[in-house]
Design a protein that fits this description.
By secondary structure, this protein is an alpha+beta fold. It is 60% helix and 17% strand. Strands 1-2-3-4-5-6 form a six-stranded antiparallel β-sheet.
Length: 367
């Protein structure tokens, strides 16, 4: 039975992972696919976002594996032979349940540690890509005004090195003290862990005026650095920024306590997220019950059996996430306890699976 379940599970998991990743790439197309994107960046994104995709792909792939594997046994009338010995569908439970226990442990590690860590790193990678793409959008002979309150102009740009020639920078971040910088050479660089965008200038002069006092200052420099604030553009383009998803359970409780102490607020959404990190992995056990209970409905036709497996997978997974979304909304509003909002979807799936098992046992496997 292990072989019957394992191969469909791995095939389904691989397909779902690819589908989820392609969907992520398409959702981030505006931010990712620019002149500065590298193959290494795509590889890093896949590595870091993989745990969060497995958090959803593991349960779906596992249920598909159980349904296809046991469905094939039903199509070959092996379940009928098992029923003839007086054993009901419940006798098939030990192996799927054992696999679901290992799956629950793996999913617990993913939701509590690997996924938050991966999403934090994904956010940094995305920030790096977006910042480099913004820097790469500057063109010679064109005033560039999309970087905070700076206007940058360069007469020439070396695309190989990224160096600018004949640089003009207007800094209007302080309206009362505008600054005009002229430099012979310059270069936009991305530095540090936070991917800060910095304009390095060489051999230039700085002009500063104060309209309120009619004063004017002029200074020359050999080298100077101008910090470019691009938070607004990064925030607009980076969709990997759901804050709670990047926190471990311990960090969620720490932030929850801070809101209570510092602001007197009860953040119900933090509590719901905390309980979901521990409740969601147990959906593996609930789906094992659904898979074994539904497998007794094999029709004896291979194509029909696979279609039924896909339908049951779709019905169970969509139903689970719809119920989870509904109760999460109630929990975030404080209408129901946070632990109840997290556990009801899992218990609902388990109840469906238990009902199917009892129904199949009372009715017997069809010949």
């Amino acid at each position: 039975m292990l072989k019957e379940v394992l191969w469909p599970f791995l095939a389904g998991l691989l397909f779902l992972t690819q589908m989820f990743f392609v969907g992520r790439l398409l959702a981030e197309a505006e931010a990712i696919f620019g002149a500065q994107i590298r193959l290494l960046d795509v590889g890093r994104m896949l590595l870091f976002v993989l745990p969060s995709m497995l958090a959803y792909g593991l349960p779906v792939g596992y249920l598909l594996g159980v349904l296809v594997g046991l469905g094939r046994m039903g199509d070959d009338h092996e379940l009928v032979a098992l029923s003839a010995t007086g054993s009901g569908p419940h006798s098939l439970l030990p192996m799927p349940l054992l696999l679901s226990v290992f799956g629950t442990a793996a999913l617990m590690a993913i939701t509590c540690w690997l996924a938050p860590l991966g999403l934090k790193q994904t956010g940094l990678v995305m920030r790096d890509i977006i910042t480099r793409n913004l820097a790469g959008e500057i063109k010679p002979g064109v005033f560039y005004q999309d970087l905070s309150d700076l206007t940058i102009y360069a007469t020439d740009i070396d695309r190989e090195t990224g160096r600018l020639s004949g640089v003009l920078v207007e800094d209007a971040r302080e309206p009362d003290n505008p600054i005009l910088v002229l430099a012979q050479r310059g270069r936009l660089g991305v530095e540090g862990r936070d991917a800060a965008l910095t304009l390095h200038l060489e051999e230039g002069e700085l002009h500063r005026s104060q309209p309120s006092t009619s004063s004017y200052a002029l200074a020359t420099f050999e080298t100077a650095d101008v910090a470019v604030v691009v938070e607004r553009e990064i925030s607009r383009k980076n969709r990997f920024r759901r804050y709670l998803a990047t926190l471990t359970p311990g960090e969620i409780l720490k932030d929850y306590g801070w809101y209570q102490r510092a602001r007197g607020q009860t953040r119900h959404d933090y509590l719901v997220e905390f309980h979901q990190r521990f409740a969601h992995p147990f959906v593996m056990v609930a789906l094992a019950l659904v898979g074994v209970g539904a497998a007794g409905g094999a029709s004896g036709k291979r194509k029909t059996g696979k279609a039924v497996a896909l339908l049951w997978t779709l019905f169970s997974v969509v139903g689970y996430f719809v119920v989870q979304k509904i109760f999460t909304t109630f929990g975030n509003r404080g209408a129901i306890p946070a632990w109840l909002a997290a556990w009801v979807p899992v218990l609902a799936v388990a109840a469906v699976g238990t009902g199917l098992l009892l129904y199949r046992r009372a009715r017997g496997v069809r010949a």
